Amino acid sequence: MIELVKTLVIIIIVLLFLFLWAWPISFPLLIYYIYKKNKNKKYFKSTVINKDRYQNNGFFNNIQDTYVDINDYKLEWFGTNDIDVLKRHFSSLFIDFERALNNLDYNTLYNICTPSLYELYHSDLTVNLKLGNKKIIDNISIEKMVIYNTTKNDEEQKVYIMLEMKSNSYTMNSSGKITSGSPMLPVKEEFIAVFVKKLKKANEGQLRCPNCGATVTSTKCEYCNTEFKQYEFKIDTIRKLV
Ligand SMILES: [Zn+2]
After folding, report:
1. Which of 5, 67, 133, 169 is least crowded, fewest Cβ atoms below 10 Å from its Cβ?
2. Residue 57: pLDDT above 60?
3. Nearest to residue 241, comparing CAs of 173, 107, 144, 105?
4. Contacts of 72 (CB under 8 A, 6+ apart)
5. Is 181:170 a contact under the CB 8 Å cutoff?
6. Residue 152 in contact with residue 145, Cβ under 8 Å?
7. Ligand 1 centre from 52 Cα, in Å?
8. CA dihedral angle for residue 168, residue 196, residue 242, residue 121, rounded to 10 degrees
9. pLDDT value at position 142?
10. What are the tens digits of pLDDT across the range 134-189?
11. What's the gap in Å between 240 CA and the centre of ligand 1?
12. How many angstroms separate the CA atoms of 172 and 84, rounded?
């Protein structure tokens, strides 16, 4: 055992000697190595932290563990000090959205999405409807959620969320055949969603009754008396992480 330690010490001393002896080669190599390592770290930081600049979703596969929740200072912007309350709020919002999307509930979608996102889904869903495809989603649950950033200016507050949703979702064609997904096998999907809240009342969009579709001024429809939810935070963008 002592022999082994001795040998190791000798090897280390020899290597150190060689390193110093060949300094014109070894020092530049060492500096290059440190530089390269730092550069990789910086690259990783810039791509992960500024991930929303990137359109290539697949690139961010499996990096969700690097997301961290907002700090207490930013949490106060929501008028709560309990991050779990906030997560439950955004979870139920997201589930409402997913249900509305799959049930082709245009009026709820109208109330829950920003106008630009609504337009996007509206045309998308119309195409699906024409093709006779029906999307079905059951047993939705939010398995993981990280509220990783929020920003605020005079006009609006934005909230950036990464979440993992588990559901049984599948698509049926016009003859009732399942074309994708499975009713038996739950799937997990990851999303990055940006929610936005208008801070000036004048910026708020109109409400629509989810039952009769009438444009209304309160959350109780003047025409059919349906009561419904008004969404303070609306979904602005959604990206699916592959
Ligand atoms: Zn109504």
Report:
1. 5
2. no
3. 144
4. 81
5. yes
6. no
7. 38
8. 70
9. 93
10. 888 889 999 999 999 999 999 999 999 999 999 998 888 888 899 888 888 999 99
11. 33
12. 36
Indicate the residue type of 78: F
Average pLDDT over residues 194-203: 87
Average pLDDT, the chain: 85
Amino acid identity of residue 115, one-letter, is: P
Tell me if 104 sits within 8 A of 130, measured CB to CB. no
Q: Could you identify the residue written with the tokens 């997913």?
A: 98
**CA dist., res. 101 & res. 137, Å (int):** 9
Separation between Cα atoms, residue 102 and residue 135, nearest integer Å: 5
Cα(62) to ligand 1 centroid in Å equals 43
**Each residue of 1-41: pLDDT tens digit?**
788 889 999 999 999 999 899 888 888 998 988 888 777 66
The class (CATH top level) of 60-241 is alpha beta
Q: What angle do CA 153, 154, 156 make, to 5 degrees?
A: 65
Tokens of 85: 């309350």
- 58, burial (CB in 10 Å: exposed 0-12, middle 13-18, buried 19+): exposed
